[in-house]
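Dear colleagues,

As part of the handover before I leave the project, I'm documenting each prediction I ran so the next person doesn't have to rerun anything. This entry is a single chain, and its sequence is reproduced below.
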Amino acid sequence: MRHELKIDDRTLSYLDFGGTGRPLLALHGGMSEGAHFTGLAAALGDEWRVIAPDQRGHGDSDRAAEYSREGYVSDAVALLEHLGLAEPLPVLGFSLGGLNAYHLAARHPGLVSALVNAEAPVEIVRGDGPDFWDFLHHLPYTAPTREELITAAGPLGEMVGPALRLLPDGSGWRLPFDPQATLDTLAAGYGDRWDVWLASRCPALLIHGLRSDVLLREQADAMVARRPGTSYTALDTEHFAPFQDPQGFHEAVRKFLAGL
């Protein structure tokens, strides 16, 4: 069921898949939304109550003034406070969500009992050549018709098409993410985050796509070796492991959570 809360006059929308199971906070990747964890919620069944926010600038949540890591983490803290959960809970994140998840665990250890990091690296270096994400500079947020937005999204068109939103006044359509917010988020993500990754002490699982060009095998191995209490699951995928091998991803998460 979809709910929302207000944070400084800004709406944060979230899905609570319900049930009597233990709560699990799930943070989606960039250009995505909480609904992409629908399959995970079904796979985990009654044992876990998946709570998946649309992070700022994504899905049904409002855009924000800035997209720093501090902003994303503060939204997660506000959501947990809003839910009034009595105990720390496991936090799962993919890509952007994984970065936010391990920052949340480091800065608010009393809120996080375990961590699942899917494909979020600790070292992100801007390449010397053209940036893959440069297409976002030319991608409109809104258009009069769905077809125009799908065409403008190019190779992403098939992915974003089903998630496009009708504007409130009915004058057109918008993307399920803000291209400028994505660029701002990427700009804030470059650098070395080893100190943050190593700061938390809770049990952790790193899920790694063996053919990923975002989290390379050498870095994934080092992340597991250097952080005590961290286990590792490899999937034969590229970066988008939860989408390219959903069954393997769901089973890895289920097995880790069952062992807590």
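DSSP finds ten helices and 13 strands in the chain. The two ends are 27 Å apart (CA to CA).

All the best with the project,
I.
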